[in-house]
Amino acid sequence: MAKLNRKQIQARALELLEATPGGIRWGEMLNAIHAADPETPQNSIHGALQTLLTTSDDIAKVARGTYQLTKYQDAQASAAIAQDEAVANEPLIVETPSHAKVTLLEADFYGSFAEWLSDVAEEVNVAVALGGSILKGKWGTPDVIGVLKPRAQDILKFEPQIVSAEIKIDPGQPVVAFGQAVAYRLFSHKSYIVVPRTTSEDDLSRLKALCSIHGVGLVTFTLDKAAPDYTVVVLPVQAGPDMFYANQMLRRLLDSSAELFNKLF
Length: 265
Prior knowledge:
Elements: H1 6-19, E1 24-25, H2 26-36, H3 42-55, E2 59-63, E3 66-69, H4 70-88, E4 92-95, E5 101-104, H5 110-120, E6 126-129, E7 144-148, E8 161-167, H6 174-184, E9 190-196, H7 201-214, E10 217-221, E11 231-234, H8 243-256, H9 258-264
Parallel strand pairs: 8-9, 9-10
Antiparallel strand pairs: 1-3, 2-3, 4-5, 6-7, 7-8, 10-11
């Protein structure tokens, strides 16, 4: 077999990426190309792959050492986003104490929880409502995100800390809320689940236990836009996020909304 040149190596890499929609690790690509053409030195393959993976707009780094064609990444993210938006935009009809019927959306509580997080809980200096698909990732977008930053009068300075929250108005979705809140810990120092007080006692007890085990904060509230009365049930545990995913999230936020990024950071 003839020795491959740089363009041929990169073409083989693109073929491998095309054949693996879920993504492929750098080492697996290198080994596969070298196994098919052993006369090509591994150093040559390494250099060609490094150039391709760091310069091509058609390839995304989705995890440490793992790459995926952006068309596959976009397709997966779009499917997850559509599912999340369908749930978030599904109205919930509740009965008020005066027996009137009102229609609520999750977004009705984003702003008030952002205010509670900064003004009442004082977990952050500033918080904003995100929700929707602003981060464009299949792992979801927090409904509310806030940042705690050192103030000018603080003697001991510290790195900014990210706090994320997932809000559900449907009392029948505690498992979904917990899964998303745990995922946000990848890029957050603290993460909250916010669920209505109409959540069943059994589900609430399980959430308390899970949140205590995994360090996720639990907040309950009343399904009343004017007076949600957010109450902490379990305090979140502060932990260091994975900086790869934290930076990935911040880049997506900056690309999607420079205004919100600048407000937070």
